[in-house]
Amino acid sequence: MEADDVTIREQNFHSQVREYIICFLLFAVLYIVSYFIITRYKRKTDDHEDEDAVVNRISLYLCTFTLAVSGGAVFLLPFSIISNEILLSFPKSYYIQWLNGSLIHGLWNLVSLFSNLCLFVLMPFAYFFLESEGFAGSKKGIKARILETFVMLFLLALLILGIVWVASALIDNDAASMESLYDLWEFYLPYLYSCISLMGGLLLLMCTPVGLSRMFTVMGQLLVKPTILEDLDEQIYCIHLQEEALQRRLNGSSMCTYPRGGLVHQLSKELDSIRNMRNKLERRKQASGWEKNLLYPMVMLILLAGTTISVLLVALNILYLLVDETAMPKGSTEHGIRSTSLSTFGVAQAVLEIILMFYLMASSVVGFYSLRLFEGLTPRKDDTTMTTIIGCCVSILVLSSALPVMSRTLGITRFDLLGDFGRFDWLGNFYIVLSYNLLFAVVTTLCLVRKFTSAVREELLKALGLDKLQLSTTPTDPESGKLSANGHQKTL
Fold first, then answer.
1. Which of 10, 314, 341, 463 has its CA 20 to 30 A from that of 274?
2. N-to-C CA span, the chain
3. Would the pTM count as exceeding 0.85?
4. pLDDT at position 48 over 70
5. CA 134 → CA 57, 124, 153, 159, 386, distances in Å?
6. What integer is the mean pLDDT of 401-416?
7. Has residue 477 got a pLDDT over 50?
């Protein structure tokens, strides 16, 4: 018996060490990728080792950690789904024994813990640390800034805990709830994270339909469109004339005795816009036939199919919610890893669910930066301040943390929520879940109908030649550059 106990303890020890190593390696890869992403957009500064440089470097490391946690939250549900299907397909394989339920549960709990840590501690610390200068009368330096940052964090924690305490006392007035108000670890943090998750779900509900319709425009800018009833040589010639006219006006303004700075800046900006338009037209002219006539329609059809399948799955989930109680995303623990497949069609459906999750996440990020409220957070290559990077990391963390909850709420996957992700009280409210599904389906359908009707209208105007009559319009969309080019050429 003693030998058996030693063997069991050794096996538990080795399995825990193996899980720690796997988690560390996965997080290290995410951290390295996140570091390269942030340094690509971060504003370049001098190499002097002064106080501000040290503060910026510390904030950079905290933002990198937060972005890595966001990546882990995005890959968490797809990794769990594909791991469950692999374990069910190869139950006796020796090489995948490390892929067990303990590892999956541990990853969910770690991501939930790190999400709370980044959202409530690290990101506020990074922001206050950047903005701090030390208290008045104290000696300037890193220590003074750290002291001011901790004081601000303490005051912020008191404010947030006070708000949560008052809100909980107003909502739940029974004796059990009153006793739980003094439980920080088991009540405050799960309740607070549940509120943040609900806000993230609402933000996804607002961003994802916009992003689903915006994805067609974004891919249209990245790919080369087919040339239908368009004379690219004529457009390039007109833009070339327009560029020469602007160049002459700019040279004439700079040679004046009293040049107007505002006019010169405006002309330079218009000249850069015209040159970008000319480069895009030349790229369309030089593109190969398969790129113009095959790649673009295929990508558009894939985007349309992904959006249509998502809306259909949400519609089916609405029907399930009306007729079956088990469709509610309560985070049940009846089915664990390796017990049963949660996909009706096995691995094929699991792969489809994973593709849809990544598509929804990409669409939510595109929709987030497309909203006027968050346009100021759009990162620019080599020209993004650390404050903007902190805002972007917090936003992406909120979106990515709510992605598993949204995927389960919308019925994209039937995978049961594990760890602290399934402890949200609002997931058991039938009316909230049903309203969420209905709003997503209706808003996504309206956005797509509006997008395609406007696109068809524009193509019909181009085919009939009526687009040249709209001389007063100056569209800001890069896809409508031909209209603005023609209109501007007429005014010149």
1. 463
2. 95
3. no
4. no
5. 18, 16, 14, 22, 19
6. 82
7. no
Tell me: the pLDDT tens digits for 179-192?
Answer: 555 555 666 666 66
By percentage, how much of the chain surpasses pLDDT 70?
Answer: 69
